[in-house]
Amino acid sequence: MGVVSCQLYPGGFFNAYASIAKLDRLDAVLHLGDYIYEYAIDGYGGDIGKKIGRLVEPTHEIVTLADYRIRHAQVKRDADMQAAHARAAFICVWDDHEVANDDWIGGAENRDPATEGDWKARKAASMQAYFEWMPIRDPKPGEPWEAINRSFEFGDLATLVMVETRLLARSRQVAAKGEAIAPAEYAPMMGERAQPGREMLGAPQLAWIERTMAASVTAGKPWQVLGNQVVMARVAGPDLEKQLGPDRFAAMMARLPEKWRTALMASMASYRAGLPFNFDSWDGHPAARERLYAAFKRSGSRPVVLSGDSHAGWANDLHDASGKLVAVEFGATAITSLSYGSLVPGIGTLIADANDEVRFCDQDRKGFIVLTLTPDHATVDFKTVSTVVAGSYEEASVARFRASAAAPEAKLRAARIAAATHRVTPIGVTRFDQTAGNFSSTGKRNRTGNIAESRRVFALTRRRAARMVEVGVNLGARFASSA
Description:
Blueprint: E1 2-4, H1 15-21, E2 29-31, H2 46-52, H3 65-77, H4 79-87, E3 90-92, E4 103-104, E5 107-108, H5 113-116, H6 119-133, E6 150-154, E7 158-162, H7 186-193, H8 203-218, E8 223-227, H9 240-244, H10 246-255, H11 258-272, H12 286-299, E9 304-307, E10 313-319, E11 325-331, H13 347-353, E12 358-362, E13 366-373, E14 377-385, E15 393-404, E16 413-414, E17 421-424, E18 430-433, E19 438-441, H14 451-468
Parallel strand pairs: 1-2, 2-3, 7-8, 8-9, 9-11
Antiparallel strand pairs: 1-13, 4-5, 6-7, 10-11, 10-12, 13-14, 14-15, 15-16, 15-17, 18-19
Helix pairs in contact: 1-4, 3-6, 4-14, 8-12
């Protein structure tokens, strides 16, 4: 099973999808959200899009039903996106950007009520476009559109439990990503974060998760897999000055623009005071996380949690408040979306070093993960592409981790991998002609769209989706603008 998330269209070419389409074995692709982004042409990643010729449609921030339809259509025209859809059935859930950045049940960080109208109307428009364009059936009659939690059975091997953590019940974030936090706000924010009533799932969905996992355990299936949007592990922000040492830290800071230096120092001050790395993740809702962990234990499952949103690769051991290992977590990096490693290369290693639950963190590379389940083991390969701003790229496996079905109390183990890369040069890519000052294509395949080929592949994708809907049978400084 491929696991993917966060595909900012102007952020780069979908090389990871070209790589997925060529995999020798692939039963499904689990997409954990951010299939589209809502930003305008000058918004998040827009500078990259202008350099490589990937400009968003429409050019303004999307708000209406027509806007969301156009943005979905643009992403679906991408040849690599089409190839991945044609390769295997997609199992999908939205994250925040299918509506707006850092959304919750009552609104979003990226929302101006004065100019963007009613939140419920915008949310309804985005969900309608999502159901029109994505291979997903509507919720059960009588259930709200937000209730897209559902499960899939993979024979006698595994149950996949897909959850919704954005629009159905989530409490408002204590702080949004990118928000500057003054020291006087630390204590009030941590007090609000600790409130027992803060939600991510809601009671009905939590009870459904427990019933579904318990039924899977009773049926003798060795694996219960949770498809979840945001990182679940406890993650403290790294103290870069302490970890790097004064000389290396000073050299790193000197390379950053002034605005990032100021934001980085503010972020490190908050981390030293005990604030978490990301309030938008499960770390911003610790009571809700403990309720979920209790449900895992009552069901008799130690699940494999799959996460997206963070634009980074993760391998985490998850513990409850008492220190008991309750699950393992694998996070998929972004297809194209910007990561903290773009500002501070190698920061993922420092994050892993600063956190007991984090076994591996890659904030530098783009790609996807491949989860392989057998009756004995769950193995995850972290697959990467060397670039997303050019058509030619190298594929690599940068890490592999394994969990054992026979030893649910054991922590994740790193598995040996061959240190090999494979160079890929597409037949015909769009390149920038520096002399002419424009983009031109070569060969039979143009990344921005050979129309006849696009129509053929899209028709194949639609036919396949009709047959296989729902599978039936993919530092961190708080100053980052989006995840």
